[in-house]
């Protein structure tokens, strides 16, 4: 990791460490209901990943572990990694409270090969993850290296078209190019889980087009089973979204022409 990227990751880690305590207390993550048995997983990933019982699962960029632990409740043997040491601490706390057997490891994504042993039946990652990564070629290679033969990689993620908009402006303004290799810096008050929170979020991120995502997996030796795109999100995490009859969310009318999510399932042959 060069010194430039090290600075970016250190800033992002500091921001995510501050976010953890806010998010763990937020209505968005609703930890109280989670502890009582509510799953944090959504219909998209439950349907498309399928039965995980008896399988080993590596969750990349797991935040404070709710999805990891939800997979554990469904019978998977789970390992979650995240850049944030505070996130890992909170995940371990939840794991202990729920008396589950998930393993949580503090690790930058790019350090997974040296920090995580073994291979897995499933590698999973979801919602707001690849934008923190400058290099998807290495990302794809790490995923492939951590999958057993016949293993499945699954990602559900915000669509790259979404990240062309600056949501700090009202209405959101088309600001960023679809294909952009340079780093994007944003600084704003609050977080997506609590816009009123007393925190200044300082974040470095990167835009990645669908072609880059797909090719990074293909070039790492994975076989793409499907690429799906969705107009609805399970999360009310952008300004002024409309709730649909099925409990999902869409952008306001002016931006509604764009897809909100995509999912990919790939196999290691």
Automatic annotation (TrEMBL):
Swiss-Prot/TrEMBL keywords: Methyltransferase, Transferase
InterPro entries attached to this UniProt entry: Methyltransf_11, SAM-dependent_MTases_sf
Keyword Transferase in record: yes
Enzyme Commission code(s) on record: 2.1.1.222, 2.1.1.64
Source organism of this protein record: Lutibacter holmesii
Signal peptide region: none
Methyltransferase type domain residues: 59-155
Alphabetical GO biological process terms: methylation
Domain of life: Bacteria
Listed name of the protein: Class I SAM-dependent methyltransferase
């Amino acid at each position: 990791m060069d010194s430039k990227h090290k600075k970016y990751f250190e800033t992002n880690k500091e921001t995510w460490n501050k976010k953890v305590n806010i998010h763990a207390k937020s209505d968005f993550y609703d930890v109280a209901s989670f502890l009582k048995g509510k799953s944090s997983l959504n219909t998209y990933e439950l349907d498309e990943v399928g039965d995980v019982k008896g399988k080993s699962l590596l969750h990349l960029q797991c935040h404070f572990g709710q999805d990891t632990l939800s997979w554990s409740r469904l019978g998977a043997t789970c390992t979650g990694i995240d850049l944030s040491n505070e996130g890992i601490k909170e995940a371990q706390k939840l794991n202990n409270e729920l008396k589950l057997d998930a393993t949580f490891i503090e690790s930058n994504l790019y350090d997974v090969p040296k920090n995580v042993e073994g291979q897995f039946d499933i590698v999973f990652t979801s919602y707001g993850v690849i934008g923190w990564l400058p290099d998807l070629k290495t990302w794809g290679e790490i995923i492939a290296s951590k999958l057993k033969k016949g293993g499945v990689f699954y990602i559900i993620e915000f669509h790259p078209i979404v990240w062309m908009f600056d949501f700090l402006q009202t209405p959101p303004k088309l600001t960023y190019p679809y294909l952009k290799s340079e780093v994007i810096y944003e600084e704003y008050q609050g977080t997506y889980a609590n816009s009123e929170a007393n925190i200044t979020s300082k974040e470095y991120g990167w835009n990645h087009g669908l072609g880059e995502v797909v090719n990074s997996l293909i070039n790492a030796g994975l076989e793409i089973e499907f690429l799906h795109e969705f107009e609805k999100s399970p999360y009310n995490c952008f300004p002024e979204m409309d709730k649909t009859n099925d409990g999902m969310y869409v952008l306001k009318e002016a931006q509604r022409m764009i897809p909100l999510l995509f999912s990919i399932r790939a196999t290691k042959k």
